[in-house]
Amino acid sequence: MHYTTREKITVGVVYGDQARIRPVWFVWDGRRYQVTSINHVWRDKAGREVLVFFSVSDEANTYLLCYHTVQLEWSICGVSMEG
Amino acid sequence: MHVDMDAFFASVEQRVNPAWRGRPLVVCGGGKRTVVAAASYEARPYGIRSGMPLYEAQRKCSDLLVVQADIPTYVDASVRVLQILQGFTPAVEVYSIDEAFLDVTGSLMLFRGAERIARMIQERIDEELRLTCSIGIAPNKLLAKLASGMHKPNGLQVIREEEISALLEDLPVEEVWGIGPRLATYLHEMGISTCGQLGRIPLGILERRFGLIGTMLYRMARGVDDSSVAPFGAAPDARSIGHSMTLDQDICSKDEIGGYVLLLAEMVGRRLRSGGYAGRTVVLTLRYSDFCTFSRRMTMKRYITTGPEIHELAMRILDGIRLRDAVRLVGVSLANLVKGRVQIPLFEGERKGEELALAMDRVNDRYGEFTLSWGPLLGGRKGRVVPPSWRPKDGDLIHAIS
After folding, report:
1. Which listed residue, B9, B31, B269, B398, has the most CB atoms within 10 A of its CB?
2. Is residue B73 less than 8 Å (CB to CB) from chain A?
3. Euclidean distance between CA atoms A62 and A58, whole angstroms
4. What is the ipTM for the molecules in this complex?
């Protein structure tokens, strides 16, 4: 089951080498979600702005997070619930 | 060396969503009558293949997961694969979004052999993207492409010079790169079903029957291919630029068809200008509901670059066609191209049209495709597709942030 949204969220991120970033938790609608795996990372462009998408999972579901590199904001774009 | 990503779109989707791994899945376009763009390996035992209409795929597998194509994800993965390949040789020819040819002649000493390079490429792609690819190694591109398809997925096949004739002897002609279903049918009608048989036909007979193609067939049957790897960035100029789309439902009204023609013309114009091209010949392709497909063309004296100009000419072509049936597919392309044209339009109207197009390009470059467009296209489909001629752009090659 898929749920599509576009809401600003707060994300806890670890910066690694070569400017790589790794979300470790995020807060969405007042609830904190712990990221247990990063499934895939890719970039897209909205005009000149580069958007970095992270498909991440917690113990239950998969979430699509987006980092807006110009506004320096995070948003959640979708949730995929198993089953 | 030929590198072919395994079930690329489907595999990327299974990376993005772990719940989809191990399940039969197809990636499709967004239209109601879309076809399968890619099928996961789990879907293939059901007889599901790329190009099959979605309703047919769903009939074959009731549990089939249908995912709408997300082009930016695939483009990003493809660019990352390209960056890995360029770490082994600068001679990388991007053949399509999921295929590339490499000339590794100059890297053999450094990496100690072609097979080792292939293994390292497979390891790097697995490590960085968790995707698999199949690799073919051979003396030329024709045979390398054949080899990469022999052991999929995650395969590695080497064809050595001394193995070529034995391999080709019983190989069905349709398995050779460049021999499509229609050509294969002609050959079958001539009693030729394998490359061995094709190779024994005298060149003169093939040339009389097929013209220039006959010469190519003669060479292909012997595994001969002199084409070189055209490194990314040194690819030859495009000969035509076009887009087509299958409509959500068959339509008879020329006005309605004209709406799609405008969208396609705008997409063609945008690609044309971003590549620095201008063209003189507009080609309109229509497919009737019975799949009968035909093209009509019209050539102008001057070169054009803008969507409205392409649209106007395409509509003149459409006006001259007496539709005998409802239309299910519309295609617009521009041929007779030149690159880097510097010609100031003579008339004010043309100059204003070009200036307007360039101004719209600047807005859309900054804020995204179709931010600024023509009124009739508002709220319509904003097609985002991967044309066969897809190659990464400079902007795609910026350093990944993660």
Report:
1. B9
2. yes
3. 7
4. 0.76
Q: What is the pTM of this model?
A: 0.77
Nearest to residue A28, comparing CAs of A77, A70, A69, A71? A77
Q: Does residue B397 carry a pLDDT above 50?
A: no
B332-351 as b/e: b if 16+ CB within 10 A: bbbbbbeeeeeeebeeeeee
Asked which of B2-11, B190-199, B307-316, B381-390 is least confident by mean pLDDT, the reply is: B381-390
Token look-up 């190989």 returns: B171
* Phi and psi torsions of B303, nearest 5°: -85, 145
Helix (H, G, I), strand (E, B) or coil at B211: coil
- B166 pairs with which residues across the strands? none
Is the Cβ–Cβ distance between A74 and A26 less than 8 Å? yes
How confident is the model over B241-283, as pLDDT tens digits?
A: 999 888 888 999 998 999 899 999 999 999 999 888 999 999 9
The Cα-based distances of B56 to B51, B63, B68, B130 in angstroms read 11, 13, 16, 30
Between CA B207 and CA B188 the distance in angstroms is 17
A53 vs B19: CB contact, 8 Å cut-off?
no
B18–A53: do the CB atoms touch at under 8 Å? no
Average pLDDT, stretch A23-29?
95
DSSP string for B5-38:
ETTHHHHHHHHH-GGGTTS-EEEE-SSTT-BEEE
* Whether A20 contacts chain B with CB within 8 A: yes
Using a CB–CB cutoff of 8 Å, tell me whether B72 touches chain A: yes
- Among B19, B364, B367, select the one facing A62 at the smallest CB separation: B19
Tokens encoding B118: 């292939």
B83 interfacial to chain A (CB closer than 8 Å): no
Q: If you measure CA to CA, which chain A residue comes closest to B71? A: A44
Q: Is B162 a catalytic residue?
A: no
At which residue do the structure tokens 């997409």 appear? B267
pLDDT tens digit sequence for B72-100:
899 999 999 999 999 999 999 999 999 99
